[in-house]
């Protein structure tokens, strides 16, 4: 491999993962959770391409709301991204891939680099199979093909797209074929027919191609995507360690997938059949399939007491859950929501979440624990004109200098040392010490010590919404 030029991984981390609600929510979706190992799906994706002899540092494209989570999770596994590009609005995978190709092409214009597009929320159990599939795809990608990776279907799945394997790709490597046809999420009858016929593969959503090859096809089939992405990148600005695309320009790009915009139309599409233990964890049923099962076929996560339960997925992220005499069920319990359904109807969770959004509910968007670049806060209790929060500040972390017009705050230090700025005065508080922040007072909380700072905050006032924050100064560029 020493003579081969390095491949540039592009990790797409813009999804909301609504089918895994209530675990996955818009502000903290499934790719940030450790669902298949001790690492999050994002961390596993980055680690999978961390061999510096074969892969360049990854380029990550993510939602601007997730930027600090992405940066912290990569830092946690010692991966330094080549770039973290922030999407100001969601525009699906065609726009994200186009921006990545433009960034890579601009940085390496003389080489026309190979880019490996990887969704951040997939599980791949066989790392050797993954690497072998990439090597099979490289010659075709070098020759100008847009290569997708196909997975042998284990069942007639209606939630995946399909690609039909055609003739061998001329000039490609062993095991690379022309992509004859694509079929997006077929109905049950069509899925059964394709699986029975053979030659059809699940479309994994992973791709390998030269940056220039991709942009040529995007220019040909969806020039409006190319134009919007070029303009968004030309107007991009630095935001700490991130590259923030111009919002008005990027919003002009149609929200369309790369499969629909290019792969289903181009004559350059190729497919490499791959055996790598792949799953996109697109539903609770998929998570049950890849999970470690007990003797009764159950996947049990958390504090669960199960008796006479078979072939079920039961998860508690909060309290004891006791289950008796059920089969083929899905039961997920968080601290603010419970989901119960037949496991066979797990795909319907997305429609349920969309209905909750239409009702204006907060549960599709946020957990009770909300992550910030300095740590997190978690709601503990709320009532008429008051609420209680647990605030955790990492060593060296500091909240913005801010004030609230309509609420006062009481802080009690539970663990660590709190440095408090209040009306220009700065002082430290130790464990079991407290202070009061009147409404309208400029204040800041920070952690100067080596251990995590934990405080209990009691808010009181006529309005307690998070939008009653006026940031006067901020270390994370949020003013």
Q: In a nutshell, what does this entry contain?
A:
With 479 residues, the protein is an alpha+beta fold. 23% of the residues lie in helices and 35% in strands. The protein has three domains: 8-279, Spore Coat Polysaccharide Biosynthesis Protein SpsA, Chain A (Alpha-Beta Complex), CATH 3.90.550.10; 284-358, no CATH class; 369-473, Jelly Rolls, CATH 2.60.120.10.
CATH topology of the largest domain: Spore Coat Polysaccharide Biosynthesis Protein SpsA, Chain A
Uncertain stretches: none
Number of E-type strands: 28
Overall geometry:
globular
CATH class descriptor of the largest domain:
Alpha Beta
CATH architectural arrangement of the largest domain: Alpha-Beta Complex
In percent, how helical is the residue content? 10-25%
Tell me the CATH superfamily of the largest domain. Answer: Spore Coat Polysaccharide Biosynthesis Protein SpsA, Chain A
Describe this structure in words.
It is a single chain. The chain folds into 3 domains: 8-279, Spore Coat Polysaccharide Biosynthesis Protein SpsA, Chain A (Alpha-Beta Complex); 284-358, no CATH class; 369-473, Jelly Rolls, CATH 2.60.120. It is 23% helix and 35% strand. The chain has helices at residues 41-48, 67-76, 92-107, 127-142, 188-197, 211-221, 223-234, 247-250, 258-263, 284-290, 349-358; strands spanning 8-13, 59-63, 83-87, 114-119, 123-124, 146-151, 161-168, 177-184, 200-210, 237-239, 242-244, 269-274, 278-279, 299-307, 313-324, 329-333, 338-342, 369-372, 375-383, 386-393, 401-403, 407-415, 418-422, 425-429, 434-437, 443-446, 453-461, 470-473. It has a 6-stranded antiparallel sheet with strand order 18-19-20-27-22-25, with no helix packed on it. The radius of gyration is 24 Å and the shape is globular.
